[in-house]
Write a structure and sequence with these properties.
This protein has a 3-stranded parallel beta sheet, with no helix packed on it. The protein has a domain of 60 residues: 3-Layer(aba) Sandwich (Rossmann fold), CATH 3.40.50.790. It has 126 residues and is an alpha/beta fold. Helix 2 packs across helix 3. The model has no long low-confidence stretch (mean pLDDT 82).
Amino acid sequence: MKMTELKEQLQKSLIELRKEKERKFNQTVDLIINLQKFDVKKNTINLLVSVPYKIKEKKIAGFLESKNKNVETVTKEEFKKYSDKKELRKLVKKFDFFIAQASLMPKIATSFGKVLGPAGKMPSPR
């Protein structure tokens, strides 16, 4: 199958998917392409597929010693506010990624680790 044929088939499939009734959950589509007789040294693949909706903008929060205007900040003084698990869960849901100042990592691990760790949002000290 040539790349143009592949692109046409993919576009037809997306049109068919859009015709189906809307579901009450976020739908995903997995695409698996098996490339046979394809030499990566000779051929290159360049395929761009646009999605019909805007992808959610990522929100980042920082655990810092002082406020920063470029990123929403949780300072050391505000750690007490998040001792309540409900407030902490709200914080974790609100942001997609967390960054941290290295000197605050031990305190962050003890205060926020129980919720950030399982959510996969614990900042890395590296």
